[in-house]
Amino acid sequence: MTQYVAKRILTAIPMLWLGLTLTFFIMHLAPGDPTDKYVSPNFDPAVQQLMTQKFGLDQPLYVQYWRWLSSFVQGDFGISFDRARPVRSVIGPYLGNTLILSSLALLVSLTAGVFLGIVSAMHRGSPGDDLLTVGSIVLYSIPGFWLGLMLMLLFSSLLGWLPAGGIVSVNHEYLGLGQRILDRLVHLILPVFVLAAASTASTMRYMRGSMLEIIQQDYIRTARAKGLPERTVILKHAVRNALSPVITLFGLSIPYIFSGAVIVEIVFSWPGMGRVMLTSIFQRDYPVTIAVTAIIFAMVLLGNLLADVLYGVVDPRVRYGAGHHS
């Protein structure tokens, strides 16, 4: 297992480098210049030239690439063109907010998807199963930004039950400890639901199909013939084996949810990396854009690796070797 994980990590390094290299050249070859936003009739062209030299944009592209790559491998993401601060200080305060939102959405999608999938499979053909099936298709098909706007309109504007956006209320600092915790949780409800909706629907469909296949196996009939309680048969024998394909989906859901947070954060004015990345793209802030892209790529590779490892934990038939798993 250790050798397999180490090999996967070593394989992920060139993939990460290739993805970031493509991002670097696409950003730099796109029309426009980071200093264009400062241009105005009262702006001295000489100042723009000095700024271009300060950012190193007057150097050949291969020189800029080498300078960026040398800094990146040392853990230095560079200086933000737009904010004139280290990229770490720009991203740092927002990364935690995105991780909180994404982690909660991932937890909700996994637990709710697995639970609803089991319930749907155990009541196959019932009105409840039909309702869950239709509901999962609808949630999976609805665009996240539209769902967020509709929920905001219903629960915030019409009913006034939940806040329309932000991470805390205006008077948050004047509340007691318990009220501050509740205030943060209330602000999480809508964005977490929207971010987890499609992944929950997908997980439920996979779990339902896997459960329907597993409960038809001979060892399940044997367990029932031995007189074991139905709950024991389902939870101990069926669910564990049915989780195998869902685990793979769980690993792939990590980058899906993390990247989907970009849209959700914009809709709900959530101060996370999504808004930072969108702003950096419009401002042509290359260092910030590439740094955020690196984090997203890392989450994709981590999700795939985690899916493979968890697959071996859930399914005892899987054994990892030094070069492959079977």
Descriptors:
globular; MetI-like fold; disordered C terminus; 326 residues; mainly alpha
At CATH level 3, the topology of the domain at 89-314 is MetI-like fold
Tally the beta strands.
Answer: 0
Described by strand count, sense and barrel closure, the largest sheet is: none
The helix-strand sequence is HHHHHHHHHHH
Describe the structure.
The protein is mainly alpha-helical and 326 residues long. The protein has a domain at 89-314: MetI-like fold (Orthogonal Bundle), CATH 1.10.3720.10. It has eleven helices and no strands. α4 (87-122) packs antiparallel against α5, α8 crosses α9 and α10 runs antiparallel to α11 (286-314). The N and C termini lie close together (12 Å).
Q: Nutshell version of this structure?
A:
This protein has 326 residues and is mainly α.
What order do the helices and strands come in, and which of them pair?
Elements: H1 2-29, H2 45-55, H3 61-73, H4 87-122, H5 127-141, H6 144-158, H7 177-214, H8 218-225, H9 230-267, H10 273-282, H11 286-314
Helix pairs in contact: 1-11, 4-5, 4-7, 4-9, 5-7, 6-7, 6-9, 7-9, 8-9, 9-10, 9-11, 10-11
